[in-house]
Design goal:
It is a single chain. The chain is of the alpha+beta class and about 160 residues long. Helix content is about 50%, strand content about 15%. The chain starts with a helix and ends with a helix. The radius of gyration is 38 Å and the shape is elongated. The chain is built from 3 helices and 4 strands, in the order H-E-E-E-E-H-H.
């Protein structure tokens, strides 16, 4: 009795899941070249390699796909928008004195004698700083050692 109930529940679960999968799954090829989107009683197919858009629908002889004609005005408008955006980005890069991608380089700004220039230290200056830091460190260690000795004497 229990076995029969388990089989009935499992069979119903499989039937429901196969129906749900059949309604939501779109046909796709193994290499994922095509992308399908459901529209009404058909599918809109996008070819990932060529960019061609087709509408695939059920016909009396099976499924058939018909290419959708390109809308040239929309394509040209998108190209113009991208060109304007590209020009704006290039202007912004040049304004910030950043190199442009490719072979075009921004012009070097003219040197302004009024602004102070950052002068990096030479090796002699760095050696002086390192010697000073070393002396401070040694003095700190001596102070710690002295305090430690004083604490040990007080505890004895």
């Amino acid at each position: 009795m229990i076995r029969t109930g388990v089989f009935i529940v499992a069979g119903l679960g499989l039937a429901v899941s196969s129906l749900a999968w059949g309604q939501t799954a779109a046909p796709q090829s193994d290499d994922s070249r095509y992308t399908f989107n459901r529209i009404d009683d058909a599918y809109l197919r996008l070819d990932g390699r060529t960019g061609q858009v087709s509408i695939c629908a059920q016909r009396p002889a099976g499924w058939a796909c018909q290419a959708v004609p390109d809308e040239r005005a929309a394509l040209e408008a998108e190209i113009a928008r991208l060109q304007a955006e590209n020009a704006a980005v290039k202007k912004e890069l040049i304004a910030r004195n950043l190199p442009l991608p490719g072979t075009v380089k921004p012009e070097e700004p003219a040197a302004n004698p009024d602004k102070p220039r950052l002068q990096l230290p030479n090796d002699a200056d760095l050696n002086k700083v390192m010697n000073f830091v070393e002396k401070v460190w040694r003095r700190l260690l001596e102070m710690i050692a002295t305090v430690h000795k004083d604490l040990l004497k007080k505890q004895s």
